[in-house]
Amino acid sequence: MDGITLSSGTRIPVLGLGVYQTPPGITERVVREAIEVGYRLIDTAQYYRNEAQVGRAVREALSQGMAREDLFLTTKIMASGHEESRRAIAESVAALDLGPIDLMLIHWPQEDGPGTWRALEEAVEAGRVRAIGLSNFYGQDLEEIIRGARIMPAVNQVESSVLYQQRRLMPALDRHGIRLEAWGPLGQGRRGVLDDPVLARVARAHGATPAQVALAFQVRTGVITIPKTVSRDRMVENLGAADIGLSAAELEQLAALDTGRCIGWPGFPEQDYDPADHPFSPPA
Ligand code: NAD
Q1: How many CB atoms lie within 10 A of CB 136?
Q2: CA–CA separation, 57 and 28 (whole Å)
């Protein structure tokens, strides 16, 4: 699996597995299978209530000879301010029980973002976390963290897919060496991404599936992507995206699919909403 070097100096696999809405009762099985079929990046969060199960599956893999440095664990806290965030960080580190966490994100903007960020910076300095970043940060929320940061965010995990490529956010991220990490890379399986005719045509040309082409587009354009599935077959399918080479012409056709409008942000009309216009509204 190819990787991307973050500003922290740590290397993150370009494609991983997300476990949002993976019920705790099956998370251990899902993560175990993901590691078996070749995933090396797992994305969880306090909010998903399955960190402990992710940690258990990873410890099992370690006990069978997998090296800790070959696996990359991301989690997210949702806490506001320094003290609350210190507690949240400690809770995640304890729940995962894997030693230092590879990447910890603020799940979405908080009232006291700078206080939360300071707690994350201290966690890096104390060796509890290797890299830190943001999620769902746009506009002023993003600027506020960047302005006060001693350690620059390594990533901003936001909704991104071939239909919503985050072109308005990218320049700010590029300027500060922040990598884009995509949630909802398959449009959350709802509609749009998986039944796009251009995607279907490119997929046919490669003997691939539309989901694979949607993910391959992100991998080839340097976006870290973490599709979610609980099915072993789909895990294999999605991971296979990393091996699909796309021609310059195909990349151009896929780039042209960008609508500039989000799909997965709930509570807003899908066709005319771009979170970049509204620095913060809470995700699901
Ligand atoms: P996604 O775009 O990955 O879609 C997941 C859904 O797509 C699955 O439920 C499944 O129904 C379907 N699917 C998966 N593989 C498929 C395939 N090969 N063919 C057809 N359908 C397929 O959406 P997501 O789960 O919202 O996002 C991925 C990950 O991103 C999450 O699991 C989570 O880790 C993270 N996430 C983060 C935030 C955030 O606020 N930071 C929000 C949402 C998700």
Answers
A1: 24
A2: 5
Q: What is the residue with the minimal CA distance to atom 22 of ligand 1? A: 189
Kindly report the pTM of this predicted structure: 0.95
Q: Which of 39, 48, 138, 164 is catalytic?
A: 48
Structure confidence by residue, pLDDT tens digits, 60-114: 999 999 999 999 999 999 999 999 999 999 999 999 999 999 999 999 999 999 9
Other CB atoms within 10 Å distance of the CB of residue 258: 14
Contacts of 72 (CB under 8 A, 6+ apart): 10, 11, 12, 13, 16, 40, 41, 42, 102, 103
6 Cβ inside 6 Å of ligand 1: no
Å from CA of 147 to ligand 1 middle: 31
Considering only CA atoms, which residue is closest to atom 21 of ligand 1? 189
Whole-angstrom distance, CA of residue 72 vs CA of residue 171: 26
| Residue 269 binned pLDDT confidence (cut-offs 50, 70, 90) | very low
Q: Ligand 1 centroid to 23 CA: how many Å?
A: 14
| Pocket of ligand 1 contains residue 156 by CB under 6 Å | no
Check if 273 is active-site: no
Residue at 55: amino acid letter:
G
Q: What is the pLDDT of residues 188-246, one digit of tens each?
A: 887 688 999 999 999 999 999 999 999 999 999 999 999 999 999 999 999 999 999 99
